[in-house]
Amino acid sequence: MKVRHNKGGGDEKVELQMTPMIDIVFQLLVFFIMTFKIVSQEGDFNIKMPLAAPAAGAPDDLQLPPMKVRLRADADGMLAGMSLNDTGVPTMKDLRIRIIGFVGDDRGPGSIQETAEVELDCDYGLRYEHVIQAITAVSGDIDGAGNVVKLVEKIKFAPPRQPAGG
Questions:
Q1: What is the pLDDT along the chain (166 residues), one digit of tens a residue?
Q2: Distance between CA atoms of 37 and 15, rounded to whole angstroms?
Q3: Which end of the chain has fewer CB atoms < 10 Å from its terminal CB, N or C?
């Protein structure tokens, strides 16, 4: 067997073909541009924030002073006493009449009933039925024709008071 010796092996250069590489780069570029999806900016939650509070000035004519209804319970949980803004009220009917005196008879959009707010401050042991009667007395009634007459729509509760002995 004859061994061949390659005498001119150092003169040949291996040349890389750049045209196919550039073609592939452009194909990838076109692929990524065509499949790119534009998304909304991160953190754009479309939150509706309340407007800034008006500057301190003269109070609004439609703004009512806060109305606080205090309901006191006896040892059995029955209604022992009731007051509206620290003034005694004997019955739920009288409470409704005094609320009507505060908010008036004007009904509809822009009326004082939209801004009126009542806070119920109840004793811890007060029975639930008396709380519901107070809510009914301040929120509205049904007139003789069967129509709902709204008084106060915003009712909030003060934290319940613990019994004096416990």
A1: 666 666 655 678 888 889 999 999 999 999 999 998 876 666 656 666 667 666 555 555 555 667 888 888 888 888 888 888 888 888 888 888 888 787 776 665 555 566 778 888 888 888 888 888 888 888 877 777 777 777 787 888 888 766 665 5
A2: 39
A3: N
All structural domains of the chain with their residue ranges = 67-157
Q: Torsion over CA of 115, 86, 141 and 148, rounded to 10 degrees?
A: 0
* Contact between residue 151 and residue 140 where contact means Cβ atoms under 8 Å apart: yes
Q: Is 38 helix (H, G, I), strand (E, B) or coil?
A: coil
Q: CA 14 to CA 105: how far, in whole Å?
A: 100
pTM over cut 0.70: no
